[in-house]
Amino acid sequence: MIEIINTGWLSLIVDNGRYGFADIGVPTSAPLDRYAFHAVNYLSGNPIDAPAIEVVGTEFAFRTDVDITCVITGAKVSASNDGVPVKPWTPFKAKKGSIVEIEKVVEGFRYYVGFSGVMAFEKVIGSYSTNIECRFGGLNGRPLMRGDIIEFCDVKTGEWRTLQDEYIPSMNPPHRLRIINGPEMGHFTRDSIKRFFEWQETPPFLVSARTNRTGIRLDGRPLVFRAGAEKSIISEGILPGTIQIPGDGVPIIMLHERTIGGYARIAMVAKADLDLLAHLKPKDAVFFKSVTVDEAELLWKRKQENIAFMYHD
């Protein structure tokens, strides 16, 4: 087992997410960086959909009561095992009684902690993921707390896997997100749309401090609705990566905790760039680049081909 000593700012149990229930308002609650989540399981030798811990913030720490292999992926961090530095994206052994601590986030925002054993949780609606608003999944439907004990179904020993540096993504700002046009792009003036895609030295948007797992709010010059255009729409289903523009004209990039929305959808983040959304932190610069649907599909296909090795033993 492990004992949580410090939770960072927010730490949750996540797995691949719950799918097929959006029609009744149940979101996926999936990991925001799916690639890093899959990598933490790949490197620790677990099934690709085994639960892991998603963390925001420094000083996350735990004590292990068993010899176990640990992995930290996602944001690049400065971490230690009993005071000895360990590398992110590289498995390391922690002996019984060891304390593992993340001291600093060097690049990115969210990171994932996994172990050479499957954490013992019960699935709720087909998933281990924590849904904070509905208070189910994970550990009693809540974020982890100091003193929490996490048991394992089994703990494996032996050789671990590695990843070459080329498979570790960059998460440094400015962030350049590729997007496809949304159904309500025509609701905005030509000047606003031009500014939305501005690629000059001064970024058009910065990530707001009002950002969480539900959505990423951006700060910047508001977009202007065309005369007569509706500032809200009949609520419809939305997917992660949908960029909505509320009445104040400032974009919100939706994440994994909503199933419907009633704001104009100016664009969608290409699926190949969705993992990067996990690492947009307050004050980071954000740029948008328009791509066609065909281009977005090709980008996703290439990404899947590049990481296919993780899904096959």
Brief write-up:
The chain is mainly beta and 313 residues long. It has helices at 34-44, 190-196, 293-306; strands spanning 2-6, 10-14, 52-56, 61-64, 68-81, 84-86, 92-94, 99-115, 117-119, 149-150, 152-155, 175-181, 205-211, 215-219, 232-237, 242-245, 252-254, 260-269, 285-290.
Can you describe this structure?
The chain is mostly beta strands. The chain has two domains: 2-167, no CATH class; 175-311, Cyclophilin (Beta Barrel), CATH 2.40.100. The protein is 10% helix and 36% strand. It is built from three helices and 19 strands. The protein has helices at 34-44, 190-196, 293-306; strands spanning 2-6, 10-14, 52-56, 61-64, 68-81, 84-86, 92-94, 99-115, 117-119, 149-150, 152-155, 175-181, 205-211, 215-219, 232-237, 242-245, 252-254, 260-269, 285-290. Strands 1, 2, 3, 4, 5, 6, 7, 8 and 10 form a nine-stranded antiparallel β-sheet that branches. A seven-stranded mixed beta barrel has the order 12-18-16-17-14-13-19. The chain is globular. The mean pLDDT is 93.
Topology:
Layout: E1 2-6, E2 10-14, H1 34-44, E3 52-56, E4 61-64, E5 68-81, E6 84-86, E7 92-94, E8 99-115, E9 117-119, E10 149-150, E11 152-155, E12 175-181, H2 190-196, E13 205-211, E14 215-219, E15 232-237, E16 242-245, E17 252-254, E18 260-269, E19 285-290, H3 293-306
Parallel strand pairs: 12-19
Antiparallel strand pairs: 1-4, 1-10, 2-3, 3-8, 4-8, 5-6, 5-7, 5-8, 9-11, 12-18, 13-14, 13-19, 14-17, 15-18, 16-17, 16-18
Jot down its keywords:
313 residues, mainly beta, 2 domains, 9-stranded antiparallel beta sheet, 19 strands, 36% strand
